[in-house]
Specification:
Ig_E-set; 1 helix; globular; five-stranded antiparallel β-sheet; Immunoglobulin-like; hydrolase activity, hydrolyzing O-glycosyl compounds; Glyco_hydro_13_N; Glycoside hydrolase family 13 N-terminal domain-containing protein
Length: 125
């Protein structure tokens, strides 16, 4: 299972991964860590779960899988999307950013109309 935390000011989102303890020692491996099985090992929390938190850029999609003891790969069962690499997570973008991006950029600026000067009495014929 994975859940999203709050977005940080530096443009990243925390993704919390958790699995039942009976799964055994597991690493989360994916695009976000160049598929390095040593980058994000899940840690036993003593509450019956293994978990780890990964920071990813918000608004981007990442494939990932779990790697268990003995080189056993398995996918996230609760993911909404999969491809040939495994489950896909899409790091959310805060609602206020989505609204700002969708808002019109404003009126296009046009050149000001030329100013006509009135003829002075000295130049009038």
């Amino acid at each position: 299972m994975f859940t999203y935390g709050k977005a940080s000011r530096d443009g990243r989102v925390q993704v919390h991964f958790a699995l039942p303890a009976e799964t055994g020692p597991v690493s989360v491996v994916g695009d976000f860590n160049a598929w390095d099985p040593y980058a994000h090992p899940m840690v036993s929390k003593g509450d019956g779960t293994y978990s780890v938190t990964v920071s990813v850029p918000r608004g981007e999609a990442f494939a990932f899988r779990y790697l268990g003891d003995g080189g056993r790969w398995f996918d996230e069962q609760d993911a909404e999307e999969y491809d040939h690499r495994g489950a896909i997570l899409r790091a959310p973008v805060p609602a206020r950013q989505v609204k700002a991006a969708a808002a019109p950029a404003g009126r296009a600026k046009t050149a000001p109309a030329p100013v006509r000067r009135a003829k002075s009495a000295a130049t009038a014929v």
